[in-house]
Design a protein that fits this description.
Rossmann fold, alpha/beta, 8-stranded mixed β-sheet, binds adenosine-5'-triphosphate, binds magnesium ion
């Protein structure tokens, strides 16, 4: 079972879009068994997969705060399984402030659950909070979505720093790849930043570039992945390609 966290503390860089569509590509095209864990109080990944975040019996908050077994919180969406999130996750940093093994809660819950999936994909919140720390401790690889805009690299040093520090708790933690999202090839700035990312991340930068596409932005409002919403769109083709790259990684 491979675990991948989709993380970047910068907001709105397409973490959720990438988590949902990479997970869906793996399930629908790759025919893999996939679990998506939503680790953001916004619950956007949960909603994007057609689930009503306010009608969930359990969320990942129950796992982290009340020791509810992870398997009990799994719900089935169309093509993959989901551990959902909603506002119950807000304020979790305060609740976990005095918990000694707080960074290990998700890792332990996953271990105890003895899951039978090919891939577990985790959608992180736009912060380096205890939730994101839990994801980074529980995962092996991290995929970082980045928008090719000014300030793109700002803050990335903090994420890389956090990843390096957490290798003390989780020696297997590594940056699996960096993916350029919402790319507009006509913009000179995007081209410049893209070149800068290639320079900075080298081999870690995925060749696949996710183009700006209105279809990708529309799909969540129908509770569908891009493959169910419009499988011939350029966004669908791009996330299919990204899946191939991810599957091809050693
Ligand atoms: N390739 C794309 N083309 C056009 N719109 C996109 C694309 N990818 C994402 N979006 C839109 O951009 C917005 C931000 O994307 P998303 O929610 O995936 O980012 P995020 O990093 O998860 O945000 P947050 O930090 O709030 O969790 C959303 O409205 C989404 O639909
Ligand atoms: Mg998000």
């Amino acid at each position: 079972m491979e675990i991948i966290a989709i993380a970047n503390q910068k907001g709105g860089v397409a973490k959720t879009t990438t988590a949902v569509n990479l997970a869906s590509a793996l399930a629908l095209i790759g025919k893999k068994r996939v679990l998506l864990i939503d680790l953001d109080a916004q619950g956007n990944a949960t909603t994007s997969l057609g689930l009503d975040k306010n009608e969930l019996d359990y969320t990942v908050a129950d796992v982290l705060l009340d020791d509810v077994p992870l398997v009990k919180t799994i719900v089935a969406s169309q093509h993959l399984d989901v551990v959902g999130a909603n506002r119950d996750l807000a304020g979790i940093d305060v609740s976990l402030a005095d918990v000694a093994n707080a960074p290990l809660l998700l890792k332990n819950a996953l271990k105890n659950a003895k899951l039978d999936y090919d891939y577990v994909i985790m959608d992180c919140a736009p912060s380096l909070s205890m939730l994101t720390v839990n994801a980074l401790v529980a995962t092996d690889g991290v995929i970082i979505p980045m928008q090719c805009e000014y300030f793109a690299l700002e803050g990335i040093a903090d994420l890389i720093d956090t990843i390096e520090k957490l290798t003390q708790i989780n020696p297997k933690l590594y940056i699996r790849g960096v993916v350029r999202t919402m790319y507009d090839g006509r913009s000179t700035l995007a081209q410049d930043v893209s070149a800068e990312l290639a320079n900075y991340f080298g081999e870690k930068l995925y060749k696949t570039v996710i183009p700006r596409s209105i279809r990708l932005a529309e799909a969540p409002s129908f509770g569908k992945s891009i493959f169910e919403y419009e499988k011939s769109s350029k966004g669908a083709i791009a996330y299919h390609q990204l899946m191939n790259e991810v599957l091809g990684q050693p």
